[in-house]
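Late entry, evening session. Most of the bench is empty. Finally got around to the prediction I had been postponing all week. Sequence below, unchanged from the version circulated by S.P.
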Amino acid sequence: MNKHHTASNKIIDDEIKGVEASPASKRVDNTDNKVTGIDSSRKFFDDVLESKYQDYVKRNTKSGKNVRERLDWKEASDKWAKLRNQGRDFEKEAINEFKKVATDVQEQLTIVTKDGTKIRVDAIGYDKKIGALLIEEYKSSATAPLTSNQRDGFVELLESGGIIVGEGKGIFINGVEIPPGTAVKIVRPNIRE
């Protein structure tokens, strides 16, 4: 091969010959693909990202769901990751505020209502002043919806109570009763419902 024979030409030559291009030669691509992060074989440059995409493809194929193209999937994945991080950051701030008014605070507990609806709550504790049980659910935006289980379960919990299931945490272990009349406060940025 002469010195002017580029890595891109090597990939093309390999494809014509039916030879798999080496990982190093796959990384060389035109500027448009470098920006998108996709190599000449239409895979992500980043092996971890490609592996996550392949896992997604397998899951969706197995369950009969549509499979997005790589860049559409990455955009959606990045959006959800950003929302998850935003939610977790807000949750940490809200927990710190909750700890100012509540004792024995625990995070992420599962409760089953007397009607059988399973709900996961973000925080639980006892009011420092009057000892009442407090439960909070954190939503990091004004429009983040409750899940159907939350919508139904929070009403059921208020009306008929529930019980903590799973391992529980701190004093809120498996089997602890949540009495009827216990409301779940929905906490959003600068809003308490």
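Two things to note before I forget:
The chain has two domains: 7-45, 88-192.
The first strand starts at residue 102 and ends at 113.
Will write this up properly tomorrow.
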